[in-house]
Structures
1.
Amino acid sequence: SIANLKYTDLLPHREDAYETSKIFLQKVMDILIDFIHATNNRKEKILDFHHPEDMQKLLDLKIPEYGVNLQQIIHDCSVTLKYQVKTGHPHFFNQLSCGLDLVSMAGEWLTATANTNMFTYEIAPVFILMENVVMTHMRQIIGESWTNGDSILAPGGSISNLYAFLAARHRMFPQYKEKGIASIKGQLVMFTSDQSHYSIKSCASVCGLGTDNCLMVPSDEHGRLIPAELERLVLERKAKGHIPFFVSATSGTTVLGAFDPIPEIADICEKYHMWLHVDAAWGGGLLLSKKYRHPRLTGVERADSVTWNPHKLMGSVFQCSTIHFKEDGLLMSCNQMSADYLFMQDKLYDVRYDTGDKVIQCGRKNDIFKLWLQWRAKGDDGFAKHMDHLMEMTEYMVKRIKEQPDKFYLILEPELTNVSFWYIPTRLRKVPHSHAREQDLGKLTPILKGRMMQAGTLMVGYQPDDRRPNFFRNIISSAALEYDMENYMEYKLSKVKA
Ligand code: ABU
């Protein structure tokens, strides 16, 4: 029995441990497959919620002086998944990354088994070539003129956006790399909409501009940046002698799913010689849909850089984030440190395949295999169908909400798969909509969410924004969703006492 065995009975500690190792791994695999089964069962709870202090009592998390046996290790795996939120459950609408794509997940399993680092071709030859192929394909989807650009996978959309900022500053001030901040005579300023992801503002803080020099451009009632306001703020800062250099447009804002008007923003960037970044971390997947790409992402090929996260709309297993540049060579010249223990120029092979010196990290996780494998399985056509399905599900949900104005209040017509709404409890159904009623609905929203989490039946995000108190943000980005979902949501919301 594996209760009598320890890690020292597994490969590579014992040469004769193949059978034991296989039994151990198959037991782990059974637990994983049971979790996948439960994840896809609508009758299963999404989570078994406990407050942190209670959860700690349910778990044995301590690190022992002497290692536990393999039976305990199997038990630990099982308990961990027992309390994990099933983010691939059909009733999980909580994050921008929902769902569990089995091919992508299989890719992640293989990735863990290969256990390599993406910094050199030397130790990741197949994965480096895959990265080349997939990144080129993604750039071609952005625009034909991007084929000879450059791209890299980064640990999340925020870091992808940071790469865009760094490249923009490097192109305008190449001496910054060696001479630092003193080499820039003047105050750099950047612009993004007041609906953009906070990582854009974070670039200003991390990179020495200060957040006061990240101008939050007002957005319209749909959450789209207003180009005239952008130009006004650029001129305002120029009049102060500042140097406007970077604009980040958002294609799919985090809360409302709005798409900024890229062509108008691109015109302003050209006029004032500013870098145009498009943060399409969330909405980039729609580039794969003939039906929904335009007008949302029209003009994206005019950008200098684009962030696009396959772990969001495309459903790749978390995490998988990409950053693309129209111009080749910038990433390398901006970030290269030429560590001579890794990036020797006299290697056996063409060292242009060593991508590690393009990035600010050293060790880089392999996030490409799961995406390559998923794309092989789906093809462009499968991804296009996936996007169209998500958008159709969104349209269906919006239709169902509109059919029941007494129970639901739709906050705006979504451009993406963010459905923003209030659930109206019985006591407020006859009350005319007003600021006071919004305040009541805003107070109720987290209570409803909490109750549904405690019941384990439904997870949907909520937040306030600068215009309204708490409201639900229902994200449709999981392939597990079918047409019953809104009926289910209506049912669950009506069951929690409001
Ligand atoms: N990076 C934005 C993720 C936000 C969300 O999943 O809700």
Note: The chain has a mean pLDDT of 96.
2.
Amino acid sequence: MKRLVVVSNRVAEPGCSHAAGGLAVCILDALRKRGGVWFGWNGEIVPDDAEIDVSRVKFDELTLATMPLTERDYRDYYLGFANAALWPVHHYRLDLARFTQEAIDGYRRVNDRFAEKLAPMLMSNDLVWVHDYHFIPLGAALRERGVANRIGFFLHIPFPPPDVLCAMPEHEWLMSALVEYDLVGFQTKTDQANFLRFMCDFMQGEMLTPDLVRVGGKTVTASVFPVGIDVDSFSAMAESPSAAERIQRLHRAGEPRINVIGVDRLDYTKGLPDRLRSFKRLLEIYPQNCKAVTLMQIAPPTREDVQAYADIRHELEALSGEINGQFGDFDWTPVRYLHRRVDRDTLAALYRGSQVGLVTPLRDGMNLVAKEYVVAQDAENPGVLVLSRFAGAAEELQEALIVNPYDADEVANAMQKAIVMPLGERKERHAALLARVRKHDSYNWMDGFLRALSACRLPLAA
Ligand code: ADQ
């Protein structure tokens, strides 16, 4: 079996993998089995004039290779281009995108540096798997350094329609860099179609098969690999005795009976203000839910150095305060908003103890919370998933109540439908959803991608 080299912005350590979630665990598993390297940023920021070295930690056949970013890199590459330009553009939010020359220069600089440090670590047979929007040009930067290995790229976030993408300065450069990969993987058919449309309409690409496109003498395979979760380990967490105890505490006497749960990084793509407005509509249209239903929204801080993230936090705090002020009573708080991380066991218990899972992003690559919610349910008395049509997960999870997150009344009506849904229908929907989540679990995702990458023919000598 070929050695695997994974590149991603952050690297998970074997000891911390439980906290890091399913994807990290399954990547670590593969790296341990095959032997290999996981290369990325160590999370440290050093002064601009510091020497940048790669540090290596070995765990048997697996090496974690990491390096810091300088202050300038962090500002230009990480905050400036990755998170204030690529992230909003890929989530169809041109209004929030900021483009500066420093940011794009920083993005090029850091990708070049990663390529320069990575190239000498590679052996000729290694499979190289690059993750996500931080590293779109990494494959091309490796090719410039003579790397002829099979290199694959997986995009965890959406790929926008060509008309959105082409509003971004430097999009031609970025897109031509993608052609240097042998395989480019997407979460959904929509993303794949947007990419292929860009290749054909904007770059004179020619389709050779439904997922193989030739662009300027290069061929690249574009396929769909929906990300999944580690189903068995997550359901074990949800079924543990300590989870049962937590659920009991959630429903202790005097508390409302119905719990609606939302769990998201506090990101403007997750549609949190719209979700709160929908919850408010639920209380207005169906006042019988007053004192009976609580929305628990868990939204840990993220990327707070980017202005749009500070803005969304203030908006959310104001909205939850407004709803609690208007509808709350001495013995009932309609919205419980927690602005922090929660460990995964507790999360599993909270999902299981909630009759409605509310996953309503305005745009999302996949959304693993939707899958976690399904897996955590008690199959004999499952809750109902209300899911945005704009989450990648909606392409698969058709038995959820699929909603348009921009339409507050539609989401409120779906919540009400979920609250009163008879047990028989809940069980039927849940069984179908669980089968789908099982079919596309994290291992299936990884095997599918690596098998497809291995099957790509080797590029002609670089
Ligand atoms: P994210 O945007 O981070 O991921 P998501 O897929 O929902 O979104 O994953 C979030 C993970 O963080 C889940 O496993 C969830 O349990 C966990 N999490 C969220 N809030 C938490 C909290 N308060 N405490 C602890 N854990 C919390 C990106 C893309 C997604 C894509 C994934 C994977 O934006 O669309 O599904 O990558 O490809």
Note: The pocket of adenosine-5'-diphosphate-glucose is lined by residues 21, 156-157, 227, 263-265, 298, 300, 341-342, 347, 364-369, 372 (CB under 6 Å).
